[in-house]
Amino acid sequence: MKISVIGTGYVGLVTGTCLAETGNEVICVDIDKTKVDKMRNGEVPIYEPHLDVLFERNIKANRLKFTTSLAEGLAHGEIIFLALPTPEDEDGSADLSYVLSVSEEIGKKINNYKVIVDKSTVPVGTAEKVRAIIAENASCEFDVVSNPEFLREGFAVDDFMKPERIVVGSSSERATTLMKKLYSPFVRSGNPIIVMDEKSAELTKYASNSFLATKITFMNEIANYCERVGADVDMVRAGMGTDSRIGRRFLFPGIGYGGSCFPKDVKALKKAGKDADYDFKILKSVIEINSAQKTILLPKIDAYFNDDLKGKTIAVWGLAFKPETDDIREAPSIAIMDALLEKGAILQVFDPEAMPNISKRFGDKLTYSESMYSALEEADALLICTEWSIFRTPDYNKLKELLRNPVIFDGRNLYNINDMETEGFTYISIGRKAVNL
Ligand code: UDX
């Protein structure tokens, strides 16, 4: 099929590339000429495992093309994906200006039947707005469909190629048939394509992300309570997770959720609720708790150093908001590093992928280390903010040799408490007893 994707951010790029992989002819449109030139030369503008392989293969096969011309993009596709940014407005709602201005152009430019697909995360009612704007200008038939993405950064290619479900919000038989045809190669395993009305599809995305953010936040509260009463959150989690109604996933406590989706979507749903005269009390709490959770280790670090962090060197492992990405948006590491710098600490940082992004945010306020071990040299303690796999099994002897004091503040519960105790580390984690303190 002929597909156009408008916007080559994270979602657009993954969508376009993966749709080309199943044999579709895809044109991706972006206004950024430098970016388009780079992509034409096979350069992937983001770090995402496996994307480079698919990217190269499909460009070579001539199935994946890039242009800055919206007119060319709109002429090409029978299905047109809108993967445009919906940044957070000052009041927390999603800013739809990109989506709506492109919709206007679509109305003016299309001259045969097209399915316009909202892929961006947009508030309930957006498909209706997009439809109205296109209808004002269009002289041909078209349909608007909502098709939210559920891609996790770091696993986006896998999530796209083998989705657990595909949600299609459509009130047109013709559009639904085309969407089913497009997605049929991705659901051979029998996973469902769930067709519903557009509003329910739009809400499904917000509800899913807000639920997951709430699930994590609930566990963070349980972890904080565990510390007060001497329970072990790892045990509680294991006990809870085996109940199939609860499930094992997304029960890992830590220093809070971050990223480009959860924080933005929770806030947007809360704001959308308010606009509809509904007060999402649970989401208000989730936002507050998560914000506090990001610096939950700070009082403990402070106490360890007798409230005097001035001139203390802290090694920081993990800066990205989660492993397998270079994304630092809303990363808990930022909140805690800001607070530590404020108190006069010196930070020696390392992350396998996020160093360039974090250096743009912090400049010369941080010392950037070449490796996880060099970050430890002459440091008074180690702080872990992201659970990259390489941090999971470090050489403990090397750690003890390099650190001035064998002290670890672990925001992601990477190590077994008993191991830490035997190895002689002072180890402070989340929702578990502190050892050798
Ligand atoms: C999320 C959704 O999972 C995806 O479906 C949606 O489309 C986009 O948003 P992503 O932001 O890439 O994906 O990351 P995800 O793996 O879901 O993690 C989100 C945050 O929650 C991370 O900061 C992570 O560290 C945190 N998290 C996750 C926990 O703190 N505990 C957990 O148990 C799981």
UniProtKB/TrEMBL annotation:
Enzyme class: oxidoreductase
Pathway given in the UniProt record: Nucleotide-sugar biosynthesis; UDP-alpha-D-glucuronate biosynthesis; UDP-alpha-D-glucuronate from UDP-alpha-D-glucose: step 1/1
Residue ranges of domain UDP-glucose/GDP-mannose dehydrogenase C-terminal in the record: 315-417
SUPFAM superfamilies named among the record's database cross-references: 6-phosphogluconate dehydrogenase C-terminal domain-like (SSF48179), NAD(P)-binding Rossmann-fold domains (SSF51735), UDP-glucose/GDP-mannose dehydrogenase C-terminal domain (SSF52413)
SMART domains listed in its UniProt record: UDPG_MGDP_dh_C
Gene3D superfamilies noted in UniProt: Cytochrome c1, transmembrane anchor, C-terminal, NAD(P)-binding Rossmann-like Domain
GO molecular function: oxidoreductase activity
Family: Belongs to the UDP-glucose/GDP-mannose dehydrogenase family.
Matching InterPro entries: 6-PGluconate_DH-like_C_sf (IPR008927), NAD(P)-bd_dom_sf (IPR036291), UDP-Glc/GDP-Man (IPR017476), UDP-Glc/GDP-Man_DH_C (IPR014027), UDP-Glc/GDP-Man_DH_C_sf (IPR036220), UDP-Glc/GDP-Man_DH_dimer (IPR014026), UDP-Glc/GDP-Man_DH_N (IPR001732), UDPglc_DH_bac (IPR028357)
Catalytic activity: UDP-alpha-D-glucose + 2 NAD(+) + H2O = UDP-alpha-D-glucuronate + 2 NADH + 3 H(+)
Species per Swiss-Prot/TrEMBL record: Aequorivita marisscotiae
EC number: 1.1.1.22
Keyword presence, Translocase: no
Listed name of the protein: UDP-glucose 6-dehydrogenase
Alphabetically ordered keywords of this record: NAD, Oxidoreductase
Pfam (any one): UDPG_MGDP_dh
Domain of life: Bacteria
